[in-house]
Design goal:
This protein has helices at 13-20, 42-49, 100-114, 131-136, and strands at residues 2-5, 57-64, 69-79, 84-91, 119-125, 140-144, 148-154. With 155 residues, it is an alpha+beta fold.
Length: 155
């Protein structure tokens, strides 16, 4: 079973490892691949993403109760420039193709709706086939070009 977990400051080691994992972050190669998340950034990040307004920023880990491991993360944030909520689902590479991505999308949509979000979007690199997982979970293609596939779902 998959649960959402609200990480404490000390739990951000998992996010640091997730962002640094080359296999996991290979989907992000169009935007630079792995992402540094050093410990000196954790406090401010935690205040914004976890302690802040759940309408503007939402972040949780995905926790597999069977293996007793964190398997990924779900998040969304309000993009002020575009005036839309952009979501994010990342599953650690070794846990992919086990249904965690689909369940993570479903959990994220449920939480976003509970927090007053009307529509979620995700801008996915055009060469990343994960947009198909979003389509299987109720998202539609809002637009696409050679660089990005923008998916959206009205909640």
């Amino acid at each position: 079973m998959l649960d959402i977990y609200k990480p404490n400051l000390d739990d951000l080691w998992f996010r640091e490892n997730l962002m640094a994992d080359e296999d996991t972050m290979s989907y992000n190669k169009a935007w630079g691949g792995t992402i540094a998340f050093p410990k000196d950034k954790w406090q401010n990040w935690h205040q914004t993403w976890i302690e802040g307004s759940p309408f503007h920023n939402y972040y949780r880990y995905l926790y597999d109760t069977d293996s007793k491991n964190f398997v990924g993360e779900i998040a969304y944030h309000y993009d002020k420039k575009r005036k839309i909520h952009i979501c994010n689902v990342i599953i650690l590479a070794k846990y992919r193709n086990k249904g965690f991505g689909a369940k993570g999308i479903q959990l994220l949509c449920t939480m976003a709706k509970q927090n007053g979000v009307l529509t979620l979007y995700d801008d996915i690199a055009a060469d990343n086939q994960s947009y198909k997982l979003f389509l299987k979970n109720g998202f539609t293609i809002d637009y696409q070009n050679n660089e990005v596939v923008m998916v959206k779902k009205t909640l």
